[in-house]
Amino acid sequence: GLSWWPFRQMHGAGLHPLWATALMYGAILLVLLALRPGISAQLRQHKALWLLALCSGLNNVASNWAVTIGDVVRVILLFDLMPAWAVLLAWRILGERPTPSALLRLALAFAGVVLVLLPEGAPATRLLQNLSLADGLALLGGFMFALTNVTLRRLHAVPGPARMVTMFGGCMLMALVVAGIGLQVGV
Q: Max Cα separation, the chain?
């Protein structure tokens, strides 16, 4: 419940959450690669791990950045739409048809998002008009977290250590990529 706090402290001290994420996951990745030197061969064998690196990395980048710049409660509420995204993604990617009760829960989850995002008394057409950067990052983070979970299920035959190293590497790599892009465009 307090994982956002160190990112706020580091941001307040001048370290953007993207660079903090890259540094933390880079250190973890170095330790994992030192402890499991043969893991690189597994990573090269399973090309689908690149999707896992991308979605887990974007999940981490989006959520860490969102809790740093946004209202934490609002960010967590939007990020927690992840189970709804997971149902939809599992339906599309894994062919897992949702039950009628799951569809009802989906409707309730998305209705809750409308309550959070739509200003009081505003028409539904203004739903996305007032999205802040933190809101967009929270929604992206939740979606990418769901995609990470679905991808992990799809890659169940890949050894666990290879998936773990891929996820840590993806978090570091995507943080570096997004931070680098941000530097180039002056954000």
A: 59
